[in-house]
């Protein structure tokens, strides 16, 4: 600051007062962030996460950051959050990167990959293994920043009305399973269909479909699938699905540094918390399912099915890597990171869990 | 605020200016938090966590929160942080709850328990399963607040120079393993000793001890034990050791609400981050150990050893529960929570990891 000499003490005092007022006004400027979420109103866990982030940020900023959160019934574009934030209709979004495979094929890898990393392994890749930098590279051309937005934990392989004992049992099986996992399933001869969530229960009950994949106990319980299907299979397709916060770069740049940090830390904590909350609620929900419907049985796909699913996954990922150098870089980064960190998971958590397998 | 009528516009303007100045000055008041850590200067991971917390809090508060962090070389009381913060010599501490078993027996349960929860399961217990409330009950009588302060992940069972093939191999084995795990080992006939960290390598090399337990690959690698012991055993004793932030209640109460929230969220994020950082560095360190010392072999204790360790753990915990109703309440809460959430871990992560066991 340049030195200014005042001719009278009165003027000096007046200048000081003006400067304090201006600092005070600047410090009190509020920013209202409009956030669009993929989820419908009152959506459990997924919808709680942006609200928990907003509550933390508002409180930490003493009200200088405010949020207006719109659910999908308001903006009518549950799978168009990417465009809404890119075009500036909203400042932020809470959605999942793999929904935008159509617009940006490389967005897919930042949610989850079949036979990929568990949630903690994937957070390690994001924060310490180069994942954040690759995600930035993918989103930067669209004027967007993307941050981890909460993990669903290991998703279940789905509800099946009949047991799967061989690869043959999958041929012609009518199953609801969307996205990349659906493409993998189709490689094995599954008749993959997509059905709106509200019609899933009836479709499974009436035999329109033989099986479906949703999320895990916490979000499956309210859908009621355990009342009409006995076999609940362990997952392979989404071992740690991370949703995302999207932010328009211009909004981010308009914030002072302290509010940027408040937003960054609030998003980071809300994301971790969602992983832990889902784990908690999955434990409770699975307990309730087994108690109310003792017929429900947990199954793991036979080794030949797992092997075929892995081969089909590898084949499709190799095709994606061929198309684009950045896709290849991301896939390679994830594979190499997984190979290293899984060795650690195997000698620690897996060895521990297996050594007390009587539980 | 009461309505005040001013006789002249000048006085009204003057009052407004005064009010703005006072708001401004209040908003700019800085608080310097003195934090004592158990760890020595430059301690990897453990020492990085309070500094990362401080950096986030300083930036989020725009400098209104400042930290002065003292390592153990300064305050000379690595295992006396509880007293330093209780007596107000420091405002905060970064330490581990189980170090204070001597002063508060019930502090032990908030770090980790043999055959207990994995880190994410334990975070679920803390934040959604009643753990925070029980920890508050234990620390409140001392004028302290305790918060999760970072997880080491699953700790390894230790380095052994000879393979353990039966319970007999443990009888008379000289092993460094401190705390509750040491008491359990002693029940099995192990000659438990404690040796200062700086002398551990030489003690193991010269045969003063036959085995030792430290942490996991990330913190074991710099100690060099893999150069002189071939068998690295999977853990059972600390499946998810959570260190802690301690805060003097008076310091906490002196902070305005926004700074309390900034501190709370910074601690929460730094704690989660430490878990993820340890996971990352353990993956790298284990990779390096195997490459440089191919003789190093990962082992799991034989089932009869695991069973004996569990029985001894159950016996000692039952004795603790007998002594004190609050101990009983905490042990019961953890047991019941673990039973429920482990079912979910088993059908999700464990089933997934075992289904792709070829890795």
Automatic annotation (TrEMBL), chains A, B:
Origin: domain of life: Bacteria
GO CC annotation, single: tripartite ATP-independent periplasmic transporter complex
One Pfam entry name: DctP
The keyword Signal belongs to this UniProt entry's keyword annotation: yes
The UniProt record lists the keyword Signal: yes
Residue positions binding substrate: 155, 176, 213, 238
Signal peptide: 1-27
Binding sites annotated in the UniProt record for Na(+): 214
This protein's UniProt keywords: Metal-binding, Signal
One BP term from GO: transmembrane transport
Gene Ontology MF terms in the entry: metal ion binding
Alphabetical list of InterPro entries matching this protein: DctP_fam (IPR018389), SBP_TakP-like (IPR026289), TRAP_DctP_sf (IPR038404)
Protein name: TRAP-type mannitol/chloroaromatic compound transport system, periplasmic component
Natural source organism: Marinobacter lipolyticus SM19
